[in-house]
């Protein structure tokens, strides 16, 4: 079973070593990424490829609708390891336009456990209800909700004790919010980055 995938793996490995014979030996001995990617599990959003990085250069956490919930031990474990052990310099929360998770959060249908997972998006939707209702096209409304969700998750990451402690001890660390477009393969920086305790206090005060 899955013979095609095994063959693809063999061809990929061969191609890597033909270009760089020491690639896997170097990868085996070192993991020192400067970036943590918190993104959606959507199969159309391949994190490393989007930003042109090789394995070992990007630490990745993915879940449905790129959430960073403060009660999720999986996400928190990744964040702590990235910040405290790997000493990443950048955390990118990356949503994408056309996100099925974002759409599912507000379409009124019941799907089971995932409804609980997506609840934070419904909270964002309620908070920005008037802005979203003023957007006439449904696709544009959902895309704006994707952006608003990323902005909320950036604040969640920045508010976490691991990140706050890193800033307090002078560690270089910035949290960014991006949205990826499936239609053209480009990321848009939402310019909501937070890179210090002072930045965070200004965001909270604002």
UniProtKB/TrEMBL annotation:
Alphabetical list of PROSITE patterns matching this protein: PROK_CO2_ANHYDRASE_1, PROK_CO2_ANHYDRASE_2
Superkingdom to which the source organism belongs: Bacteria
Listed EC numbers: 4.2.1.1
Catalytic activity, as annotated: hydrogencarbonate + H(+) = CO2 + H2O
InterPro entries: Carbonic_anhydrase, Carbonic_anhydrase_CS, Carbonic_anhydrase_sf
Annotated keywords: Lyase, Metal-binding, Zinc
Cofactor: Zn(2+)
Residue intervals passing through the bilayer: none
Similarity-based family: Belongs to the beta-class carbonic anhydrase family.
Job description of the protein: Reversible hydration of carbon dioxide.
Stated name of the protein: Carbonic anhydrase
Organism, as annotated: Caulobacter hibisci
């Amino acid at each position: 079973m899955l013979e095609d995938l095994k063959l693809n793996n063999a061809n990929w490995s061969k191609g890597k070593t033909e270009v760089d014979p020491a690639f896997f030996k170097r990868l085996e001995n070192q993991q020192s990424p400067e970036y943590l990617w918190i993104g959606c599990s959507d199969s159309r959003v391949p994190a490393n490829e989007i930003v042109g990085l090789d394995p070992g250069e990007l630490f990745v956490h993915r879940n449905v609708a790129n959430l960073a919930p403060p009660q999720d031990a999986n996400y928190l474990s990744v964040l702590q390891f990235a910040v405290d052990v790997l000493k990443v310099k950048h955390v990118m929360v990356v949503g994408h336009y056309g996100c099925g998770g974002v759409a599912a959060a507000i379409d009124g249908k019941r799907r089971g456990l995932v409804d609980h997972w997506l609840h934070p998006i419904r909270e964002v939707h309620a908070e920005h209800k008037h802005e979203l209702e003023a957007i006439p096209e449904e696709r544009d409304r959902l895309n704006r909700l994707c952006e608003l969700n990323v902005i909320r998750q950036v604040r969640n990451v920045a508010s976490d004790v691991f990140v706050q402690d890193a800033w307090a001890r002078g560690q270089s660390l910035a949290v960014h919010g991006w949205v990826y477009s499936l239609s053209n393969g480009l990321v848009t920086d939402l310019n909501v980055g937070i890179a210090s305790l002072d930045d965070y206090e200004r965001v909270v005060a604002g």
